[in-house]
Specification:
With 77 residues, the protein is α+β, with helices and mostly antiparallel strands. 26% of the residues lie in helices and 10% in strands. The chain is built from 2 helices and 2 strands. The protein is elongated and about 40 Å long. The N and C termini lie far apart (30 Å).
């Protein structure tokens, strides 16, 4: 378990700690905060720090190269 801001976690470090190489992770799951992106939120976009977190998920995908991924659908993204 890591106690950290998710934006501060580095995929390479976590993968190394788990003894995994890119492509060995079975599933990567993520839920992007919808407040800044959804049509029912304030639509702050990237001006809201939470609006940048989907890029974190992309970084994890590129670093871990999981066999599958699951991400929450945010209407309006």
């Amino acid at each position: 378990m890591y106690e950290s801001d998710v934006a501060a976690l580095e995929p390479g470090r976590l993968m190394a700690d788990l003894g995994l190489r890119p492509g060995e992770l079975v599933v990567l799951c993520g839920g992007i905060p919808c407040q800044s992106l959804s049509s029912i939120g304030r639509r702050g976009g990237t001006a809201d720090r939470r609006g940048l977190l989907w890029w974190q998920f992309i970084w994890w995908l590129e670093s871990a190269w999981p066999q599958a991924f699951l991400i929450e659908n945010v209407h309006g993204l």
